[in-house]
């Protein structure tokens, strides 16, 4: 019997896959509400992005690309089988992901047109990485649906890194 994988597992797994593919170290990935309460997160990925170094455009763009991966993954996931779109959670219009991306890019991009071009380019990069490495993301989403939380070691074992 094939197990149903919630869209939240795909969403969070794709953040982790893109972060790992971009060379970021992933410490944990979790389904919504499975992080310890003191972390004040509903779910997501903890990666090694240094918020003090976010003035470095390359690092900020890597982090923003990983942040955009959840939305792009859900769009690809829904495109594979159109009936999924009706069952998609849409993660509150990805408002948390978009706020994160805005925060990462704010120190390095001041011009709004440049920011929109950059976000469009990073969405395309996230989508291309996911389309190319869908099998990694599929495996990680399956495992995440089973376990609810995965350590960075498990992510590293399942997804090759550029580092």
Q: Can you name the CATH architecture?
A: Up-down Bundle
In round numbers, the mean pLDDT is 77
Count of discrete structural domains = 1
Q: Which structural class do you get from the secondary structure elements?
A: mainly alpha
Query: Mind summarizing the main beta sheet?
Result: 3 strands, antiparallel
N-to-C SSE string, H for helix and E for strand? HEEHHHHHEH
- CATH homology superfamily: Peptidase M41
**Overall geometric form:** globular
Describe this structure in words.
There is one protein chain. With 163 residues, the chain is mainly alpha-helical. The protein has a single domain, classed as Up-down Bundle (Methane Monooxygenase Hydroxylase, Chain G, domain 1), CATH 1.20.58. 60% of the residues lie in helices and 7% in strands. The chain contains 7 helices and 3 strands, in the order H-E-E-H-H-H-H-H-E-H. The longest helix is centred in the middle third of the chain and has 24 residues, at 57-80. It starts with 6 loop residues before the first helix and ends in a 5-residue tail after the last helix.
